[in-house]
Amino acid sequence: MARNKIALIGAGMIGGTLAHLVGLKELGDAVLFDIAADPAKGKSLDLMQSGTVEGFDSDLKGTDDYADIAGADVCIVTAGVPRKPGMSRDDLLEINLKVMKAVGEGIKTHAPDAFVICITNPLDAMVWALREFSGLPHEKVVGMAGVLDSARFRLFLAQEFNVSVEDVTAFVLGGHGDTMVPVLEYSTVAGIPVPDLIKMGWSTQEKMDAIVDRTRKGGGEIVGLLGNGSAYYAPASSAIAMADSYLKDKRRLLPAAAWLSGEYGESGMYVGVPIVIGQNGVEKIVEIDLGDEAKKNFGVSVDAVKELMDACKKLDGSLG
Ligand SMILES: NC(=O)C1=CN([C@@H]2O[C@H](COP(=O)(O)OP(=O)(O)OC[C@H]3O[C@@H](n4cnc5c(N)ncnc54)[C@H](O)[C@@H]3O)[C@@H](O)[C@H]2O)C=CC1
Ligand SMILES: O=C([O-])CC(=O)C(=O)O
């Protein structure tokens, strides 16, 4: 049986970490595509040499030729620029939109059957633009943010309740920006809803509010500490979880930016919602019943994404 082929478009900090995880988890072979071909080739060699020690046989190839992604089962897109301290994700829009155009056309020509996971920021507008430029079916193009934001939320909750992260479930919905919506009422410790845990005296609403706030600012906290670039380990792990669910038809229910056509009262846009990922890509969008406050916050987040889409349309007439 042929190995899975995973095209990593962008071989920077996240791209390299993705390739390492592809090898360590024996998910298949990977192509590391980057406009900077030599660093991509160097990273690929270094990673394959780590495979000698770790015992994985993935073929990892650096390239700047889109023809090398032909036949990819999955494309994970990190091409573009990350933010620096003092910037918002939205400040990346203009430069990364141009990158999405080149990448979308490359995927359209060379890997039209792939399941595409976009990571490039500002995420919800970029995955929308990438889908438009690539012309791939909507159910085969998704954005990674919710798994990462929920991972941060879960970590902070696990630390507060002093339990294993394995037993904490949580959702962050909406756009991947300051308006994201961590949903406390759907967060649990081993199935016990967080609001019940507060009633039981395990924590307080004030502490939960602080965790929600820290989650919303989780990317910026790391940008501030790194000083030159943004998070890459957890973003890579998050995208690999999504790719794994697709490749193995695991049907995991994960929050991700998906194309809405009526769900949550919205159409014609990408935003973070719970989805089931299986062999066909987005198998299902799950419409959970949000409480009044979460519903209001989700609306604010949707509006913020729409503003970014409008900005993209102004910058590139073909998106009109
Ligand atoms: N959705 C999410 O949750 C997250 C999104 N991000 C975003 O992911 C993106 C990548 O982050 P990093 O890997 O840390 O950045 P990086 O700067 O380390 O890597 C980006 C790579 O893209 C390459 N590139 C630029 N233009 C290209 C093009 N036209 N075609 C192919 N490659 C191109 C660059 O040469 C560079 O190697 C950023 O936009 C960042 O904001 C980062 C963390 C989380
Ligand atoms: O904060 C950033 O710029 C990168 C990102 O999206 C995240 O880590 O959530």
Separate helix tally: 10
| Measured distance between first and last alpha carbons | 43 Å
Bound small molecules, deduplicated: 1,4-dihydronicotinamide adenine dinucleotide, oxaloacetate ion
Tell me which CATH architecture of the largest domain applies here: Alpha-Beta Complex
Report the portion of residues in β strands: 15-25%
Radius of gyration from the alpha-carbon trace, in angstroms: 19 Å
User: In what order do the strands lie side by side in the largest sheet?
Assistant: 3-2-1-4-5-6
CATH fold description of the largest domain: L-2-Hydroxyisocaproate Dehydrogenase, Chain A, domain 2
- Summing up helix and strand content along with how strands pair, one would put the structural category as alpha/beta
Largest sheet: 6 strands, parallel
Q: How would you spell out the order of helices and strands? A: EHEHEEHEHEHEEEHHHHEEEH
Residue ranges: pLDDT <50 for 5 or more in a row? none
EC number: 1.1.1.37
Pfam family, one: Ldh_1_N
Keywords: NAD, Oxidoreductase, Tricarboxylic acid cycle
Function: Catalyzes the reversible oxidation of malate to oxaloacetate.
Structure description:
By secondary structure, the chain is α/β, with parallel strands linked by helices. It has two domains: 140 residues, NAD(P)-binding Rossmann-like Domain (Rossmann fold, 3-Layer(aba) Sandwich), CATH 3.40.50; 169 residues, L-2-Hydroxyisocaproate Dehydrogenase, Chain A, domain 2 (Alpha-Beta Complex), CATH 3.90.110. It is built from ten helices and twelve strands. Helix 3 packs parallel to helix 4. The longest helix is centred in the C-terminal third of the chain and has 24 residues. It is globular and about 55 Å long. The model has no long low-confidence stretch (mean pLDDT 97). Oxaloacetate ion binds next to helix 8. This is Malate dehydrogenase. Belongs to the LDH/MDH superfamily. MDH type 3 family. InterPro entries: L-lactate/malate_DH, Lactate/malate_DH_C, Lactate/malate_DH_N, Lactate_DH/Glyco_Ohase_4_C, Malate_DH_type3, NAD(P)-bd_dom_sf. Pfam families: Ldh_1_C, Ldh_1_N.
